[in-house]
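Note to self: keep these together.
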Amino acid sequence: MQPLLIFRHIEYEGPGYLQNFLVKNNIPFRLIRIDLNEPVPSNIDNVSGLVFMGGNMSVNDELPWIPAEISLIRKAIEKKIPILGHCLGGQLIAKAMGATVTQNSVAEIGWHMTTRYDNTDSNIWLQDVDEVMELFHWHFESFSLPSGASPLLKSSFCEYQGFVKDKTLALQCHIEMTEYLVKVWVEKNRDKLIESISMQSADNMLQDLSARIDKLNSIAEKIYCKWAKGLQGQMLNKYL
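Structure:
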């Protein structure tokens, strides 16, 4: 099969557990390192899917690669190529689909409970995960729901933690986290983390980290399997 393209916007916000999933399932991928000024491809004729990772920038910033990625997302939608976005990546997808990305009511950072919406698409995409689960979050902005999309997840601090439309899955939350990524993010932002109802301290985020990550990876495995069903010619594991 043709490779996925994974867009990395910051060096320490890479594909994480998603990379483990792809390697385990023999799904080829190529990392586009936007943080190293690698160009956004204009041609996706030989691409099986697009994945967009997170970043501390806003989709509303005037950065040259943002309109290029949004244009690529629109091309992929037209070609019915599967698209997956995490946090900033989800916001890029939302903006490409005509939704807005604005300041969230609060900064949502750390491990917070997230609830499934009760609708047909949510029941299909999330049928293998619990109705309420603890997921990892790190965002200051959030997206509105694009026209025709179905909401998947919500939290106490964010109305839309994810949505789906056809083969496109956009997530506000971070299901791709590994122990390494959590530790790096915490250390790089330790002085900025002030305990509040929506933001956890560094110590709180690192508490029981191995057990939390094990549960998160299990959830991510199931969601990635559902998304990867859209990859042409790909046979996956028992969740399909």
